[in-house]
Amino acid sequence: MRNMTAELAEVPAVPAYSYADLVRSMVEVEPDPDDPSGAHLVDVISACEQVIRAAEAIQAEHAALLLDERETAMEGRQAFLSAAGETGLARGMSPSAGMTQLETAVAVRRLPSVARAWADGLVSGATVRSIAKNLPPLDDADLALLESELEPLLPGLTPRDAAELVRSLSIEIDPEEADRKAVEARDDQYVLIADEADGVATLVAHGPAEQVHAIGEALLGCARRAKNDPEDSRTRGQVMFQSLHEAALAGPLPELDVTRVVELGIVISAENLLGLDDVPAELVGHGPVAPVVVDELIDQADRVFYRRLVTDPVDGTLLHSDPRRRLFTGPLARHVRYRDKRCRGPACDAPIAEIDHVKAHQHGGETSEDNAQGLCVTTHVMKHLPGWTVSRYGDTWTTPSGHTYRSSPPPQVRRRRE
Q1: Contact by Cβ (8 Å): 255, 225
Q2: Contact 358, 392 (CB under 8 A)
């Protein structure tokens, strides 16, 4: 065993080189007087991100190689725990952090295009970890099929988009395994309480998505009603928490609607509008769901709404959403929420809070699908700051430093092309 005290004592007081100096030599950019103010600073920030992504990819690659070495001397689980523990220590982190990294490294080893994209800086470590976390146990042929569908969509993919895309492709490729996994996951229900400082605690509830979302929507309804009461000075969070507390202790409040309403987006390719058999479904507000979950939701719901989501057969983007839906107003806003899923700001995964006119209404912007985008509150405010501009269809964002960032609607759940 190495004597770590002696090992540390051997480290020179002044290292031969500085990692900071090394990175600076790679990323520093001289300001160009013809560029907008701050452009060179943003270039350095972007270059640092590329270095971080490449370093993470190399680090994961070597963690997997360490596992290979340990497997020659130990049996399966022991080798994994040994390699994960030392990986965590090498990073100054816990063994559990080492296990997470090693699990990602093992998964990425089976996805060479993802590994290349990571090393080339096309995807972040968070996105890669999201892919690995949601990757089902597939054989080599099915995994290659999933990777072929995933590869062209990798550049700029956010962690949440990656998770939904991997889940939807997995459902298409192996619906039986998706059903088995969904049944097992939905049975794993629990509530946790974590005590914190200053006399507060956090309550965590884990269960079927539609039930969790239903709780959230009911509590938001309480908050909206309280906002209209001029004598109620509570914040939205206070109203939601107190309503939850009262309902849990005293039974359901009258204002908490317990009617089970399910809205399902049935995705269909534009080239196959005449048939609805065997197409994937998406639970509104959550994402793609396995066929067995769809059946369960329909059986248990008091009311079920369906909407056909017509997608482009090439890239899977939403072309049209059927406006026919009972008990629903604002079909255009609903279509934009279906199309964008989450905030359309570049790299933003936040829920949509507002439907924005890409070209402001006061400047002649139409209230139309082409001039609409779903944004979170922060991105919406940022968009209207001096120096920020967005292209006609919301695809290109330009910042005050002159940099541009792409933002396209995420692909919907698609049928796998044969």
Answers
A1: yes
A2: yes
